[in-house]
Amino acid sequence: MANPTNTRAKKTERRSAEAAPRVDHADATAKHFLLFEIAGGSFGMPLASIAEIIRVPKLSYMPLVPPSLLGLANLRGAVVPAISLRRLLHLPDAAADDTTRMIVLNGTAPVGFVVDRIDRLVAVPAERLDHDDAGAGDIDPAVIESVIRGAEGQEPTKILNSARLISGQFTQLGVTGSRDAGRSAVALGAAGAVETKTLTSLLSFDLGAQEYALPLDSVREIVALPDHVSEVPRAEAAVLGVVTLRNRLLPLVSLRALLGLPVDGMRAQSAKVIVVSMGDASIGVVVDATREILRVDPAQIDTAPTLLSRGEGEADVTSICRLDQGRRLVAVLSPDRLFRSDLVSRILAEQGGAVDGKDVQSGTAAMADEQFIVFRLGGQDYALPIAAVGEIVRPPEHITRVPKAPAFIDGVINLRGSVLPIVDLRRRFDVVAAGNRASQRILVLGIAGARAGFLVDSVAEVLKVPSGSIQPAPEMSPDQMRLISRVINLEDTGRMILLVDSAQLLDQVESDVIAKFESEQLDQTTTST
Q1: Which CATH number fits domain 200-365: 2.40.50.180, 2.170.150.70, 3.40.50.620, 1.20.120.1730?
Q2: Interval 47-52 mean pLDDT
Q3: Fewer CB under 10 Å: which end of the chain, C or N?
Q4: What backbone torsions phi and psi does residue 241 show, to the nearest 5 degrees?
Q5: Are 212 and 205 contacting, i.e. CB atoms less than 8 angstroms apart?
Q6: Level-2 CATH architecture, domain 370-528
């Protein structure tokens, strides 16, 4: 009877042998290559140029790049472009399977090549290497370093030159230090070239049928309400418990309870947590749903009547914002009045912290250096610096098409009496149109003296990230380099967000056209009146 232990050991050895490349040995002076298959053909690369071989990881789509780029991968914190060798070599596409692998090359800016299957490692004597074009076949001889002669009747193995492979389609891929990686994606204010007044920025949200708002500069970020909240013994009625946010404890309080409103037992799917700054500490405020970012004239904000501060809750409405000629009233809350000092002390004390927050989440402000609006197009996350976004609005039922308008302009809408050109970012980024129309939003940006709205599939969140998580994007095309020069790489979650340069969303010619277009619309409006 066979020994089960020996049987298992033999199976393990067999699986290991099948998983690892087969090694062909030769003399010490031979050159070493990794061989692999693409579309049934045999190819290779010098072993010294290869850092590792991995399964193809989850990829993030990058727009405005050559079609051979499959996406960006997060490899232990490094942003690695994944390139299809089939497409680079002009071979037909094929679906990935269990044998598909990515070969990651050495270098300070690593690049991954996706191949059909790893074959083996070989050591080849110099006399078996040819350096003419005879063995190139249908492959461009310019990308072939040499050819390994096969046995009689066998196809030769083509050794590829990785630098030549990517030089034809990619600009600076695999090269570091060619530009200022830390340059800011914000080249102008929210609508600074258009608006001359200093506007007040508010984040609006819903509690029941009423709309409320908080000053945007007091908001660290917005996250979904977690499924599980740890309850705190003997906590205040308004304190729901604590959750972990990026390895730190975050107290959660119910804004309904703070304002003395009825607390629903049902958990809304749209419920959000607004993370509010309290010195160096943070407190999560639970609201029914977030709405939009408002930029309003301070003249539209009035002090709230004293009567509104006489409710049963511990927080007060400090002012009222009048929008849409008074038809829309937004109750504005102040963080200082939202958490009165005694309540803040109790909440922080229950977490083992101090009133000034130095012992609770200390260093969070230093950790979260930049703040962004995250939006989605075709399933991929993108971001804009929050200072670049003038406001976020829902698209109207109808966008007016304008004769002789530039092709990249979908039409115009009337935004509080101003004509606003609308650009569909899906078309700008070559993303297939999809998604739920109800979730679509328009991001209003001021660009080069003009204002334009950019239609996106949805707005996901307001996010603050540590500067160390912001990395330069691989340079793969002039258009991509101009529009997306940085990425947010959240290594702990594997999430990758592409940072869009707001000043470059439209190039100078397009900006001039929009400015002229707006001017013509203004002239027509003036003439008609």
Answers
A1: 2.40.50.180
A2: 91
A3: N
A4: 145, -155
A5: yes
A6: Beta Barrel (2.40)
